[in-house]
Amino acid sequence: MKAAPVRKDNLKYTAQIIGVKSGNKVRTDHTYLAQVSKELERLQAAREQIITDAFSVFEKRYVTPAALLLQHFGDSRKAARWLCSHQKVFGGRTAYDVIVEGDDEMVWDEIQRIVRMISVIQYA
User: Which domain of life is it from (predicted)?
Assistant: First the structure.
């Protein structure tokens, strides 16, 4: 697959955001990519922390559904990721989106469905 062309103004803007100074093109490109890599690592770590923190809040507020998710997925990291993943059953939204919109029952029903489905498969 062919990469989309990169607009110079986008590169300059991104370079400004992460603090790359203009200069030798080869050096600037290398520095730019190194800083982008660092920034992506920082953002990923922040994302992981937010996912973990959100699941902790979910666990305290919704004890039974959280316990079912833990039972189904085996650990809190996988359960937390499921809650943050866009689900077809929720119209492309996350479970958190659906809860915030006030349709808790839709999320509980889906959690029960996936737990029940796994139980049927295990005992078949």
Answer: Bacteria
Tokens of 107: 């999320």
Instruction: Give the amino acid at 122.
Output: Q
Which residues, in sequence order, are CB contacts of 85 under 8 Å at separation 6+? 94
Give which of 117, 120, 97 is closest to 107, Cα–Cα: 97
Residue type, 75: D
| Interaxial angle between packed helices 76-84 and 25-61, expressed in degrees from 0 to 180 and rounded to the nearest 10 | 100
End-to-end CA distance of the chain: 43
Give the pLDDT confidence of 13-59 residue by residue, as tens digits. 666 666 655 555 556 788 888 999 999 999 999 999 999 999 999 99
Instruction: Report if pTM > 0.90.
Output: no
DSSP code string of 74-120? SSHHHHHHHHHS-BGGGTTB-HHHHHHTT-HHHHHHHHHHHHHHHHH
The domain segmentation of the chain, as residue ranges, is: 8-61, 62-124
